[in-house]
Amino acid sequence: MIASTIRWSHRNLFAKPLDAVLSLVVIPLCAWALYSGGSWVFQGAQWGIIPESIRVLLVGIYPADQIWRAWGTLLIFGLLFGATLGCVFFLHRVLALGYCLVVAAIALVAVYSEPTSALLIVAAAALALAGWFATSRWENLRRFLVPAWTLGLIAVFALLSPPGIGLWGGLMLSVLITMVTAVLSLPLGILLAFGRRSQLASVRMFCTAYIETMRSVPLILVVYCVWIVLPVLAPQYSVPDVLRGMAGFTIFFSAYVAEYVRSGLQAVPKGQVEAARSLGMSELDVNRYIVLPQSLRVVVPPLVGNVLDVFNAAPLVFIIGLTDFLRAGQMVLANPQYSDRTYEIYIFLFVTYFLIGSLITFAARKLELHLAKGAR
Amino acid sequence: MTVQQQTGPQPRFDLKASAWSRRKKRIKHDLLQIAIIVAMVGILIAFALAVRNGLARHGISFSFDYLWQAAGFDISEGKTFSWSGSLPNLTDFTAADSNAQALITGLFNTIKVAVLGIIFSTILGVMLGVGRLSTNWLVRQISFGVIEFVRNTPLLIQLVFWYFAVVLQFPPLAAAAKLYGGFIISQQGTYLPWPVLAEGATIPSAVAASVGIALVFTALFVSAKLRILALVAAFAALALAIGLGFPFVLDYPVANRFRASGGIAISPEMAALLLAIVVNSASYIAEIVRGAIEAVNRGQWEAAAALGLNRRDTLSDIILPQVFRVVLPSLGNQYINLSKNTALGIAIGFPELFNIYGTIANQTGRTLEGIVIVMVAYLLLSWIISAVVNFANSRLAMGTSR
């Protein structure tokens, strides 16, 4: 054991003089950082603030007596996520077991503070598992995925809006903005991508101009601009801030989606198009049945990465006065009695963002491997 | 940035098409083309009219006159153009200056952060990217951890964290001055020693010293033979400068109770914005660099090893020069992203372009005019960066046989 440790460290830490010097500098630094960080996490930090303010962090100023609506949203999303997972990863016994263990751990933590929430979390997780099982077992169900997502999002909107769209906040708002943007920017992006390689020079020019402009200006500017311009354009309707923000995000990110899709369109071999044309297919059919399916297969991993970009950009809605996850954290800190808990709150935010972000990155990488299997 | 125009689809060859039917097709195509252009222009005009009507309903007209009115607010840092006689020169911004000059100050700050950010993030990014492939296990893991963490969390929370949890937690000025001496790192700002012209410096000695320092830096980037030449020349120039009385002295910052003077000052906002943007972009650049290093043919490594080069020389003389040629377009995209990300400075009150625009819009109510200006400014900034990168790319690509 000791011998193998020495051999390992000789090979990996002290193989060359430069490595040895680096190790000698880095190891004490790491040890010190770990020690001071660890002692703060386990002794100095007062984590009590997190359960105390968890409702504000997760749903912002959403009224407490309407919180069941947010739970309903969690259940719907659980089912949909599970079903989506099932299309890509087959539900092995090991995976299911690991999943149950993670859920049990989360539930245990939740039981400690609130038994009802623990029950609901377990229910959402069970729904996700059911959806996962269903789509990975019966492939016929997969074709209902897109309608299910559309219906699900509409249902979520219908469920959450009665108390007022302006009250949406916290992590819930960040997730909703991400979902709506991801779903709406896809068709817009596909249209723009086709427009950019259209045979008509005018269409090509307009689409290129749109895409390049959006890619050259900051998102925060676009969101703010849309927020300002929408009420000027349609003064008779008072569009809620949340919807204006979503519109800005969609307008901005559809340009990025268009570029990803375009790269996918370019990856389709020319022979495919020629073969389809020689079969007498119309131009629309060639694009719809031959080019698009093959190119979407290539661009699914970058599009999943794009979802992460949207999620990471969601805090920018502070510019139009919305209370997203980060803003909710700052709202908690604005309370004078909590003002010395800066690090606790920020670390909680960082960890949550990092977990969700890593999950999306992981899914994108797995998808890439999964989709590459059938490629030539 | 995808600037290059892609070639349009080739016209299809149709055996049966007679001259007439081909002409008919072309006319149809042209008519469709015109119809689309008319429709697009119509939509744009309708959009502009709707905006104008909407504004008119509030009793506002669309005009840029407000640019020449006095701004009436102060900006904590940055320079602006002002006219002294007929020559423009850089001066500090004061409340009596116009809104246009305020916007220029904002643009100045944006460009300042963008340029510094590009330089530092490239250096840090290459270090992280190489560290990701280091032979040292610990360095590899740390680089990987930093990159993954930064890429999977939002930039805005990183920025806010750097500002509220790091920069603002520095010791206050009075305590900091005792701690760090020549460098002052404090809540109120970071102050670094900076070379200034000494009293009684003569022009020849200043020129000689500048040339000498410039030569030392060029020596870093030229081949070994030229390096010796450059160093000798630098030595001669510096010796001459010292002989004439060395013209530069380091101006050390001196701290009073509430502010420090002397040296060069970096405000806490700028420090936080720069840190956040540099670390964030560096992580993306590191992944680009790592991908490119891994994409370099293994034969290059083997050939270098066969010639007896060690890993460090292989990396710096064989691999990285090839890598830079490959990664330049991706780096250009990253630089554009970086310059766009400076707009987040508004979250912590750094007076960059978007922030100044917000202040002016609040004071004058001119939101839409300002948005047009700011958008054009960012577009120009992005285009300039992509033009520079494309130029560098074409120059670098020319020298290779591949």
From TrEMBL, chain A:
The keyword Nucleotide-binding does not apply. The keyword Transit peptide does not apply. Pfam families: BPD_transp_1. The chain crosses the membrane at residues 21-42, 70-91, 96-112, 118-135, 144-165, 171-195, 216-237, 303-323, 343-364. Signal peptide: none annotated. It is found in: Cell inner membrane; Cell membrane. GO terms for biological process: amino acid transport. InterPro entries: AA_ABC_transptr_permease_3TM, ArtM/GltK/GlnP/TcyL/YhdX-like, MetI-like, MetI-like_sf. It is a multi-pass membrane protein. Belongs to the binding-protein-dependent transport system permease family. HisMQ subfamily. This is Amino acid ABC transporter permease. It comes from Borborobacter arsenicus.
Automatic annotation (TrEMBL), chain B:
Keywords: Amino-acid transport, Cell membrane, Membrane, Transmembrane, Transmembrane helix, Transport. GO terms for molecular function: transmembrane transporter activity. Its main location: membrane. SUPFAM superfamilies: MetI-like. Residues 107-389 form the ABC transmembrane type-1 domain. CDD domains: TM_PBP2 (cd06261). It is found in: Cell inner membrane; Cell membrane. One of its GO terms (cellular component) is ATP-binding cassette (ABC) transporter complex. The keyword Membrane applies. One of its GO terms (biological process) is amino acid transport. It is a multi-pass membrane protein. The chain crosses the membrane at residues 31-51, 113-134, 155-181, 201-222, 229-250, 270-289, 371-392. The keyword Transferase does not apply. Belongs to the binding-protein-dependent transport system permease family. HisMQ subfamily. PANTHER family: AMINO-ACID ABC TRANSPORTER PERMEASE PROTEIN YHDX-RELATED, MEMBRANE COMPONENT OF AMINO ACID ABC TRANSPORTER. This is ABC transporter permease subunit. It comes from Borborobacter arsenicus.
